[in-house]
Design goal:
0% strand, single chain, mainly alpha
């Protein structure tokens, strides 16, 4: 299942970042491309709504925070 998430992320990165950016910008410096990629990843993880895990959609950081809280609670129950 995790492999599917990785493959989907790679496809999204290709379709939503690399293909559009290379059609519009010529990068003469790798650091410029890295800056654009960093900005896209910030958008992808903190603002872009994903529909893979929740029917109404969710931003990945919110899902991560929710799962972290659940895992913390389960671990706390095991240790006490």
């Amino acid at each position: 299942m995790l492999n599917g998430y990785c493959e989907r992320f790679q496809r999204t990165l290709l379709e939503e970042f690399y293909q559009p950016i290379f059609r519009s910008v010529i990068f003469r410096d790798l650091s410029l491309l890295q800056g654009k990629l960093n900005a896209f990843l910030e958008y992808y993880n903190f603002r872009r709504i994903h529909f893979g895990l929740q029917p109404r959609g969710a931003v990945p950081i919110d899902v991560f925070k929710a799962k972290t809280k659940i895992l913390h609670e389960r671990l706390h129950k095991l240790l006490t």
